[in-house]
Amino acid sequence: MLLDRRLFLLATPLALAGCATNDSPRMSALPPMLDPQYVRMYAAITDEPFPVPAVDISQIDPRFLRQEVAYSTREQPGTIVVDPNERFAYLVMSGGRALRYGVGVGKQEGFNFRGEGTIARKAQWPRWTPTPDMIKREPERYGPYAGGLAGGVDNPLGPRALYLYKDGRDTLYRLHGTVEPWTIGTMVSSGCIRFINQDIIDLYRRVPVGTKVVVLPATGAPVS
Hints:
Elements: H1 2-11, H2 36-41, E1 67-70, E2 80-83, E3 88-92, E4 97-106, E5 115-124, H3 132-137, H4 139-142, E6 160-166, E7 169-176, E8 187-189, E9 193-195, H5 197-206, E10 212-215
Parallel strand pairs: 2-10, 4-8, 7-9
Antiparallel strand pairs: 1-4, 2-3, 3-4, 4-9, 5-6, 5-10, 6-7
C-alpha cells in the first residue's frame, strides 16, 4: 500500500508528479539531476522485498526519463507501443498523449520481437532463465544459469517483468527492469525491452494482464 501510494503521488498522469506536461522533460530551468521531481521519481525504494537503489540520472540522457508527451497513434489508450529505433516505450493515453519511457533494446536487429503481442503474465521479482539461444551464443556467460536465477537484486530482470505472448504462446520476450540503468537508450539486450527499475514498477502498476503491446520494426540505426 505504501508503494502504491508513493507511485501514485510521483507518477500518475492525473497528478503529473514527475511527468512533464509537454514534449520537453519538464517546464523547469533545472537539469533533471537537480529537479526535485525527477530526483524523487528515481529515488531508492525501500519497501520492496529487495531494495531498489536510487538511479544516478546524470548517467542517462534526459530524454529517456519518464515523461508525458504528445503522441499520435491509431492504437487505443492502454496500449503499449515500443519503438526500438528511438528507444522509447509509450503507454498510450487519451487525447493524443502518452506516457513515455526510455528503454534498452536488442543489440542486434534479429534479436528483437516485432509485431503485436499481449501481456499474458506479470511477475514481481521474477525468476530469470536464459533462453537456449542465449546459452548457445554465449555458453560461458549464460550456461551457469541454465537452471534459472531467483529474483533479487542481482537478477537481470529487475523488480518486475511483463511477459509477451503472441497467439497464446510465450514469445520469450519480456518488458522488465535492469541492473544496468546506464544502458537505457542503447542497443544492449538479447531482445527483451529493459526499463529503469522505477519505470518498470510504474508501468507494471498501470497495465493489466491482457494489455496489447505493439513492437515496431527495428532498423538498428543509432539514436541521433
